[in-house]
Amino acid sequence: MTLVQMQPPSNVTPAHQTAADAMDTGALQVCDDMTIEVALSVMAGARTGHLFVCDNDGLCTQLVTQAQLTAVRDSLAYTDRVQLRDILDGGGPFTSPVTTTAEAEHAALDRRLAALPVVEDQDSARGVLAH
């Protein structure tokens, strides 16, 4: 999986480009009962730096990054039983597919995020904006 380049398709002007136009739709979704070690292995195998975490109803609750998971694994409180749901901090931030890329990029920079999940109204993961 490669990072999304923030260049618009030829039929969309930059001022009107939306998150849906620029997102990477290949983001992996995993269940929140997955352990940290397994999640890191999935990331390594998929050559990606982030995963969507979904609850038992299939709703996207958060995006986790390799850096976050590595920090948890390297902490003194870590055990091999720690699951993704144990480290989630309440979800978000997310953006809508109709948000302009400029707005989404601004939101990601304000929060110092490397990637911003794009979700539908029902919290269904559509893709990731990454820079």
UniProtKB/TrEMBL annotation:
Transmembrane segments: none annotated. Residues 20-65 form the CBS domain. InterPro entries: CBS_dom, CBS_dom_sf. Pfam families: CBS. SUPFAM superfamilies: CBS-domain pair (SSF54631). This is CBS domain-containing protein. The lineage of its organism: Bacteria, Bacillati, Actinomycetota, Actinomycetes, Kitasatosporales.
